[in-house]
Amino acid sequence: MTLVFEPVEGIGEVSPGDDIAALIAERCELSPGDVVVVTSKIVSKSAGLATTRPKDELLAAETDRVVARRGPTSIVRTHHGITMAAAGIDNSNTAPGTLIPLPPDPDGAASAIRRRLEELTGLSVAVVISDTAGRAWRTGQTDIAIGCAGLLPVDSFEGRTDPYGNPLAVTAPAIADQLAGGAELASGKFGARPVVVVRGADPAWLLQDDGSGARALIRDEASDMFGLGAREAAVAAVIGDQPVRGLPVDPTMTLDDIVDLALSGLDFPRRHVSVDGSTVVLSIGLDDQLGAGVLAQRLVSLGIAHGTAIGVRVTSLPQD
């Protein structure tokens, strides 16, 4: 398979109300099997989303929850479910003093452009809406798909075998992301070429209908192992409400397991700790009050960290 990435020349500045599909159809000749990659910025511009609102105010409006914050940098989960720096808000390639947020429905935007291209050209092509994002543990950024239509966003290899006969269990190429990244390399950051046509895509990637969209690439919170930054997770476990988002339930941890973990390093008798449903009962004597307080805080914090609401009840041991 040979993939060819062809930037569409001459689109220029996009204004509110512009027909993106018409801008594309007027400047290139599409073919069956093409994938059209469109930057989210021109989708937002055509929708009139450019704003002069203060960035902090706009960021708050676009944020579902904060994942991590270091100085002026905020990594947040948006209302789309996408985790990005500054909720994907951008002030590059736009008029000075304006900010561009992500489109509110990237999959819907991809579907609309796809339908409009079919009206104009008679061809049903796939469409990807791309945006630039950083990666945890990796320096630099790459474009990812935040919306798509007519394209298989991710291809699960589960149940297949490699050429050596090894069974594949977790291999799942993120096709839409990989095409978005390649399109960014072809377009360049400063070439004013916000649309790239990808030719030669595997027919197995192409769909007759819109498909599941790029939302299929988003991990749900229950399976997100990194829903909070390290500092934020520690703070949430100490002072957060029970349970907090970003710290999903750990089905492998029983309440007795959490009790054993909380007792680690403490000089508190295990025999004075019992479990009653979702409540941990601490039986204490006069000399155990301080240790019981420490243990109670540990239990609540570890419960939050494992997505489990734990109640703590303290009773007095019979006095001799």
Structure commentary:
- The protein has 320 residues and is of the alpha+beta class.
- The chain folds into two domains: 4-49 and 103-218, CofE-like (60s Ribosomal Protein L30, Chain: A), CATH 3.30.1330.100; 242-316, Alpha-Beta Plaits, CATH 3.30.70.
- The chain is built from eight helices and eleven strands.
- The strands form three sheets. A five-stranded mixed sheet has the order 1-8-2-6-7. The protein has a three-stranded antiparallel sheet with strand order 3-4-5. A three-stranded mixed sheet has the order 9-10-11, covered by helices on one side.
- α6 crosses α8 (289-305) and α7 packs across α8.
- The chain starts with a strand and ends with a strand.
- The mean pLDDT is 91.
- It is an enzyme of class 6 (ligase).
- It comes from Aeromicrobium yanjiei.
- Keywords: GTP-binding, Ligase, Magnesium, Manganese, Metal-binding, Nucleotide-binding, Potassium.
- Its EC number is 6.3.2.31.
- Residues 11-48, 58-200 form the Coenzyme F420:L-glutamate ligase-like domain.
Quick summary:
This protein has 320 residues and is an alpha+beta fold.
Name its key features.
elongated, single chain, 320 residues, Alpha-Beta Plaits, 60s Ribosomal Protein L30, Chain: A
